[in-house]
Amino acid sequence: MFEKILIANRGEIACRVIKTARRMGIETVAVYSDADRNALHVRMADEAVHIGPAPANQSYIAIDRIMKAIRSTGAQAVHPGYGFLSENPRFAQALKAESVIFIGPPVGAIEAMGDKITSKRIAAEAGVSTVPGHMDLIADGDEAVRISGEIGYPVMLKASAGGGGKGMRIAWSEDEVREGFQASKNEAASSFGDDRMFIEKFVTQPRHIEIQVLCDSHGHGVYLGERECSIQRRNQKVVEEAPSPFLDAETRAAMGAQALSLAQAVGYTSAGTVEFIVDGDLNFYFLEMNTRLQVEHPVTELVTGVDLVEQMIRVANGERLSLRQDDITLDGWAIESRLYAEDPYRNFLPSIGRLTRYRPPEEVDGETLKVRNDTGVFEGGEITMFYDPMIAKLCTWAPERAGAIEAMRDALDGFEVEGIGHNLPFLSAVMDHPRFVSGQITTAFIAEEYPDGFQGVGLPPEHLARVAAACAAMHRVAEIRRTRVSGRMDNHERKVGAEWVVTLTGHEGTTRLEAAILADRHGADVTIGDDVLRVESDWTPGQPLARLSVGGESLVLKVGKITHGFRIRTRGADLIVHVRTPRQAELAALMLKKAEADTSKMLLCPMPGLIVRIDVAEGDEVQQGQALAVVEAMKMENVLRAERKGVVSKVIAAAGDSLAVDDVILEFE
Q1: Consecutive 10-residue runs of the chain (669 residues): their mean pLDDT?
Q2: 171 shares a domain with 91
Q3: Which of 128, 424, 513, 579 is the most exposed place for a label (fewest CB within 10 A)?
Q4: Which domain holds residue 137?
Q5: Domain count of the fold of the chain
Q6: Can you give the pTM of this predicted structure?
Q7: Are residue 583 and residue 476 in the same domain, yes or no?
Q8: Which of 554, 588, 622 is a domain's end point?
C-alpha cells in the first residue's frame, strides 16, 4: 500500500480524502494557494505545500506546480478529488511519466469520456442509449443556430470539456442560441481551457439519474445503484438522494448494465459515474461519464456501506475488487443537501466574506439515523471569490425516505452559518415542498416552482402559532434575566407580565397574535387564541440556537436578538418577531417607518465579482431585457439586464473592475 499520497485539490473533498487515508494509515500531502494558506485541508494533512497565487490557473490547475510539490514531498500517488485536474489527461500522463500513481482511471479512459462528443459516439457503439444531437464541433453562433433548428428546440448548448454546470445553456430560440453559445464558450475557456462546443436535444420533463460504477484493473466491475440528482439550478446539482424515488428494479438493472458496458468499452478502472437523462416513461439516455469521484458520492456510501475513496486507493494500488454485484445492496435512504455561499434572496448570486459563525449539526452514526457533514471550512475562515461556492455537503440517512427527509429538516434547522449569504433557507424549503416530498421532481423543479426566484417561505398558521408561543416564552425568560441583572426588584416574577402581543413579519406579511403565559419551573403554558401550547426548553438568552418542545413537537429556531424580540429563522422562513406588552404594541403601531433609499435609477452590482464587459455607453437608450453588463463571479458569467426602458446617463464601472455587492455600475436618467 502507498505510504504517502498527495491530494491535488482543496476544500471539502481534500478533507474527505484525508479522512480515509488517515484511517488506512497513509500519510497525506495538501497543496494550497495564497487564498488557502489557513484552510482546513492544510491543517488536516500531514504535510502542506504552497503552489502559487489564488487564481486556480496559477495554482490548482497549474500542472508544473503540482508536479513540483509531488517531487519535493516524495508522494507515491495523487488523488485529484473532483474539478481542477481530476479529468485532465495531460496531468494523468505527467504523473505516469514520473512513475507516480494516479488514483483514477487510465489516461485513455479520461480522454475518451472527458470529451463529450467522443463519449457520445463510444456510448452509442457500446449499445448505450443516447440523446439525439450534433456531435461535431461547432464553429460559431451562426452554425449553432442552423444546427439547433435542425435538431428542434429546445436544445442544450454544452462545452465538450465541461462539467459542474459550467459552459452549459438551455436555448429555446435563435436569439438564446446566439447569446448562450458565446457565453458558454467563454465560461468553458475560463474554467477548462477548452472552448469547444456541441449541441444536443433537450429532453423535457427530465430526471437526472446517475449510476455509480467501480472497476479494477483485472477486468472486474460493479455498479452501486443510482443517485437522483434532479434538483438543479443553472445545471448545478443542489439536492441529491439515493436511491431514486422514481426508478424500479428493472430499470435500475438495465441502466447499471449499460453503465458497466460503457466502462468496459474504454478499459475503465477506479470509481466513475455514468449520467443519464430519464423521461417520464422511464426511457433513459446517456448524458456523460464523469471519470472521477462525484460531489454527491456520500449518499451512495451511506446506502451501500462502501467507502469509495478507499476503493479508489486500493484499485490504484493494483488490488482486485473484493466486491461482487451480488454483494451490493441498497439499505435505507440517503439525502445530500449542498450548502452554498449563495444568497437565495438575490437570485442565488455568490456571496463572499468571513464565516463569523459556523456550527454544523452534530454528526450521528446510528442504526436508525445517520448525519454526515463533509466540509472544508471552519468558523472564522473566509469564503473567497476564486473558487467554487460550496461550503459543505450535509447528508442524512434513515431506513425510509420520509425519515431521511425529516432528519434533513432537523439538521438544516440546526445548521448555524453567519457572516455570508447562504442557501440554507432554500434547502429547508425544498425539504418541505410537496413535490419533493412526493418524489415528483424533474430538473425543471426550481425553475417551475420558483420562477421569480426564492423570496422565502411562508409558514402555515399552526406553525406560526408554535413560533409565536416559543418566542413569547423565550422573551419572558429574557425579561426575567434582565430584571435580575438590574437588581431593581427582588421579586422579578411580579415585574414581568404574563400578557404579550406577538407580531411575526415575513415575506408574506405580518401576523399578530396575543399570548398569555402561565409559567412553572419546567416550562410555560402559552395560550394562543383557543389553543394552549406547552413550551419547554433549556434555552438561555444569548444562545443563537434554541431547541424547544412546543405543543409536544420539537422546534428548532435560529435566534438573533432585536429590540423587543428576535430575528427567527426556521424551516426556510426568516421572521422578525416582536414580543411587546399590550401598551408597547399600541404605541409601536403609531411609529413611522424609515423610507428606503431610492436606487431605482441605478444598476447595482448584485454580487462581488469582476466586470467582464459593459454593453452600453452614456446616452444609449435601452429596452427592457437588454444586456447592460456581464459580471464574472466564482468562474460563472452573469448577464445583467435592464428591468425597464431607459436612457444611460453615466457609466461608472469599466471592464476589469472588481466590485463589491451594491457597487454602482450605471446610472439612468
Answers
A1: 97 98 98 97 98 95 97 98 95 97 96 86 92 81 92 87 76 92 86 83 88 97 97 90 96 97 96 94 92 97 98 98 96 98 86 93 97 97 89 98 98 95 95 96 92 90 96 92 65 68 93 93 92 95 96 95 95 95 91 82 87 94 93 81 92 91 92
A2: no
A3: 513
A4: 132-201
A5: 4
A6: 0.84
A7: yes
A8: 588
